[in-house]
Model the fold of this input.
Amino acid sequence: MFHFSRFRNTSALLYLHITTTVFRCVSTMSGTMRAVNFEPGGPENLRIGSVPVPKLREKEVLLKVYATAINRADTLQRKGLYPPPPGESDILGLEAVGIVEKLGSGCVKTWKIGDRVMVLLPGGGNAEFVASREELLMPVPDNMEFNQAAAIPEVWLTAFQLLFLVGKVKKNDTVLIHAGGSGVGTAAVQLCRQFGARAIVVAGSQEKIDFAKSLGAEEGFNYKESMFEPKVLKHTDGKGVDLILDCVGGSFFSQNINSIATEGTWVVYGLMGGRTIDTGDHLGKILQKRITIVGSTLRARSIQYKESLIADFTQRALPHFSSGEFRPIIDTTLPLDSIQEAHTLMESNKTTGKIVLQVRDQVKDEL
Done:
């Protein structure tokens, strides 16, 4: 990403635009593209390099990427802890937004070249082009820019899956949402509000809690200041919550056991707080309360599962973006070249919402 403020005259800007456009044309003609490369380790190991443009397999679409984003899964993959599913791209990035560039053989959906789409990916999104199964595409909501749309696919589909497909949330259920200021957390709060569930968030700052409340959460607790368990019980008149969305794991295990209601459902979808627990009498409490504990991931799910999830989301949730009832929450937008900064920011745990990466500028490409 070039910073135009560094150029002092129109001639320099014009020269930069022409040379950048020529570079992109040459790259596309030669079958290469810019993408995030890395060696296992810290953010300093991330680089922008030249790699082949993906070759399309059966029922795949080539997407010209304008914006993408990063997720916790990307930071884990960068560390060598979360490899992509077998046969999928090892380039980082679980979502992308852009324009349909080419249709592969066997495509039967109604997508056509030039369509504005966003996509959930098993990998490959942090690049100028990405190949995707046609079933995983969704239309970009009306009047929404690409950078905004890049904050939708991974976190909103994850939140939708956790609440409705896995957690079986019902109207008036009380839902405890950990990491209430995260991308998934802010999406889950809005989904709860829209579909009649009561959201309580746990987060690491009052600022994040207040923001979650502005989105529809009825209460929030700062886990850094005190234990959230007694406050959850007080807020629910001793009953506990009906559903927990847990991306923390080990360090909150005991408090979650005590915070959940009898016959509640506890969905574990991340382990930011560790993989091990001191069992104590936890097993006894699980039996006593008849708690259902479910583990959930999305990246390695089958195409059929994701297609069904996306179809359900497209019908039930996507129209609310066009109406303004839902909004993707973006903390920071950075150029793709700032990938090191993006990962460092993600791991600081200071963000609220998504970190979006702008891959190319829409206005310049349409000139």
User: Anything to note?
Assistant: The first strand starts at residue 32 and ends at 38. The longest helix spans residues 10-29. DSSP finds 13 helices and 15 strands in the chain. The two ends are 18 Å apart (CA to CA).
